[in-house]
Amino acid sequence: MTKEKVTVIGLGLMGSALARALSAADLEVTVWNRTAAKAELFKPGEVQIADTFADAVRASDIIVVCVRDYEATADLFRVEPVEDELAGKAIVQLSTGTPLKAREASEWAKVVGATHLDGEIMAFPDAIGTDGCAILYSGDRSGFEACGNVVQAFGGTSQLIGADPGMAAALSNAVLSIYFSFAFGLLNGAAICDAEKVPLPLFRELVQSLFPVFDDVLSRSVDMISADDYESEHSTLETSAGALAQIAAVGRDAGLDGRLVECMRIYAAEGLEAGFGSVGNAVLFKQFRNRQ
């Protein structure tokens, strides 16, 4: 029985994990990387190593791309000899990108006769091929279904969230904004504890105990924004502005870098100036969305 063929372009930590998951799923995998030495890390017979980028493109009808970003992808693919090879092929773009770049790539793919599927990996490399892997896809449903064995090989939860090619990138970046807000807030909290000689394990335990509260804030905020109704029985922006001023004072007393807290304090202060002090924090969505 002939194995399904798939090419992986890019062999960083994530690209290599993708290639190994595909090989483990008994697909015939061809790989290419600008730095050829990275391909030598695979076990003998685990993958086929293409001599050139053009050879890698010719080798398979499904091409998985995991390079730095969409600009790096364009540098590789948007040259005439390569574009001539793409008709009828499916390009699964798993590089970092923006919604606009995803839509532009989809339009380009149509011009050269290829199918474009945009994917956003919501996991670290060690989760690829396991139940812990989550990948969001957006684009043409027939293209998603045609790549079914590839999608399945990556494991976990893989879903097509919409036909708009930019939707996966939009949702991924939205979630990343929460991830980095949490991560940077965690570092600021750890700095306060360290300065005031509060044991960090105690800090960790308290934060973990508050995860249900954070989940409740998420649910209530989304409901408020969806309904455009910010009345709250839990807390007001005025109260939050006072809390942020207090956190800033703690940081100043301890000699900490206060830029993160100052950024949040400014948003709250602007909300108060706009007359939103008596409603919930979610009203600041209007500022982020540039709507007054």
Structure description:
This protein has 292 residues and is an alpha/beta fold. It folds into two domains: 158 residues, Rossmann fold, CATH 3.40.50; 118 residues, N-(1-d-carboxylethyl)-l-norvaline Dehydrogenase, domain 2. 51% of the residues lie in helices and 13% in strands. Helix 1 links the parallel strand 1 and strand 2. Helix 11 runs antiparallel to helix 12. The longest helix has 29 residues.
CATH architecture of the largest domain: 3-Layer(aba) Sandwich
Poorly predicted runs of 5 or more residues:
none
Helical amount = 40-55%
- CATH topology of the largest domain, anyone? Rossmann fold
CATH superfamily (homologous) name of the largest domain: NAD(P)-binding Rossmann-like Domain
Query: What is the string of helix and strand elements?
Result: EHEEHEHHEHEEHHEHHHHHH
Overall 3D geometry? elongated
Largest β-sheet summary? 8 strands, mixed
Number of domains: 2
Features:
eight-stranded mixed beta sheet, Rossmann fold, alpha/beta, 13 helices, single chain, 51% helix, 292 residues, N-(1-d-carboxylethyl)-l-norvaline Dehydrogenase, domain 2
Summarize the model shown:
This protein is an alpha/beta fold.
How is the secondary structure organized here?
Blueprint: E1 5-9, H1 13-24, E2 28-32, E3 48-49, H2 53-59, E4 62-65, H3 70-77, H4 80-83, E5 90-93, H5 99-112, E6 115-121, E7 134-139, H6 141-146, H7 148-153, E8 157-162, H8 167-195, H9 200-209, H10 211-227, H11 237-254, H12 259-273, H13 285-288
Parallel strand pairs: 1-2, 1-4, 2-3, 4-5, 5-6, 7-8
Antiparallel strand pairs: 6-7
Helix pairs in contact: 11-12
